[in-house]
Design brief:
4 strands; Serine Threonine Protein Phosphatase 5, Tetratricopeptide repeat; single chain; two-stranded antiparallel ribbon; 382 residues; SOCS box domain-containing protein; mainly alpha; repeat
Length: 382
């Protein structure tokens, strides 16, 4: 058992007393301890932190169990964690360091993690760095991921614009829980907030993916509509030459909670590049159990001629389940032109180009005709 000298015991007891005063927001006691000169204002304390509010580690590192129960923190971190606003102000007035990371997070990271808008405001007023990175590589805004942290996010956004762009892609990523296959309304709200404050929807990551690529990968029609209304480009390619609609094709059959028909409509009505006709069998391979999607895709072309691969891409049991639809598919996709009504639709859509979604809504046409122009599925092809 480790033995301590009387001096070491006294310092240890003083640290415990200092920590308790911080946690209980006892600003007067904190001042008295600091004025003794026995403890530095930025001394590092060991704090119980099973939720890792104070801690951030590099991804991929293994940690022993005891590391996940306590964290290292300075007094200002503790004040933010426990919402000790008055004591935090005292520490800052006494010259406490505001951007240090004893366990991988600055006080501003912690304020956003616990959704403490008042402490966020206080720290920013004392020139906390809004773009500092935690040990895991995240900015404070990346920790604003719940409805309760919206006020924190607003304060950060008002102070810097460059941060909004990286945060939008991160927020887009977290809108979907891959394990539970559910969508997060809180992250949708964060994306909405960022876009309302002019975050760039076309900013690209190192692999050239945009937020729209993320939304398409999640098959998230709510986020896709937000991004497209904000000016997201449907034709941007990632480092492998893939556009958002190709991402969508890869995941259509593994997103049970999604409404893929809406996703394809949104992209095609905002000028997405269509799949090369000779490769259309890949659409059938991915979407054979979603006849509405196949209908939308087929109707985006003036005419498609089937190849031998088409029928092979549709399992027999699926063909039987959707027999009326697939019979109509092979009836219209022949060597003869489609109906005059369909060709007229294609001509109008071509003339509107990238403004199809907005342009159709402004045409003096009855609602059923507008839905027809925007590729609303009807269950059969003709």
């Amino acid at each position: 058992m480790e033995e301590f000298s009387p001096r070491q015991l006294a310092v240890k007891q003083l640290k415990l007393k200092f920590l308790e005063a911080l946690q209980t927001n006892n600003a007067q006691e904190v001042l008295q301890i600091l004025h003794t000169g026995e403890i530095d204002i930025d001394t590092v304390l060991e704090v119980e932190d099973p939720s890792m509010v104070l801690a951030s580690y590099k991804q991929g590192y293994w940690l022993p169990g005891y590391k996940l129960e306590t964290s290292w923190a300075m007094g200002i971190h503790v004040c933010v964690m426990y919402n000790a606003l008055e004591t935090a102000l005292v520490l800052l007035q006494e010259g406490a360091a505001i951007n240090r990371m004893p366990n991988g997070k600055t006080p501003l990271h912690v304020a956003c993690e616990v959704s403490n808008a008042e402490c966020t405001d206080l720290l920013l007023a004392h020139r906390a760095k809004v773009n500092s990175l935690s040990l895991s590589g995240h900015t404070p805004l990346h920790y604003c991921i719940t409805r309760d942290s919206v006020d924190c996010a607003k304060q950060l956004i008002y102070r810097v614009n460059s941060l909004q762009e990286t945060a939008l892609i991160t927020a887009a990523f977290w809108t979907f829980d891959n394990k539970e296959q559910t969508y997060s309304e809180d992250h949708h709200l964060v994306c909405r907030l960022l876009l309302d404050h002019q975050a760039d929807p076309n900013l690209q990551e190192e692999d050239h993916k945009t937020a729209l690529h993320k939304a398409a990968w999640h098959c998230d029609h709510v986020l896709m509509q937000m991004l497209l209304e904000a000016g997201a480009d449907t034709r941007v390619m990632d480092i492998n030459g893939c556009t958002p609609i190709q991402y969508l094709l890869k995941v259509t059959d593994v997103r049970p909670m999604a409404i893929p028909e809406l996703c394809y409509q949104l992209l095609l009505n905002h000028n997405a590049a269509r799949i090369y006709p000779q490769q259309f069998h890949k659409v059938l391979q991915s979407c054979y159990d979603y006849p509405g999607v196949v209908e939308i895709m087929v109707n985006s072309y003036e005419h498609l001629k089937p190849t031998r691969k088409w029928r092979d891409a549709i399992p027999d049991d699926c063909y039987q389940r959707h027999k009326d639809f697939y019979d109509s598919l092979f009836a219209v996709c022949t060597n003869t032109p489609r109906s005059l009504l369909h060709l007229t639709r294609c001509a109008i859509r071509a003339s509107l180009g990238g403004l199809c979604h907005r342009g159709v809504s402004q045409l003096p046409l009855p609602r059923p005709m507008k839905k027809y122009l925007l590729l609303d599925p009807e269950g059969l092809l003709y």
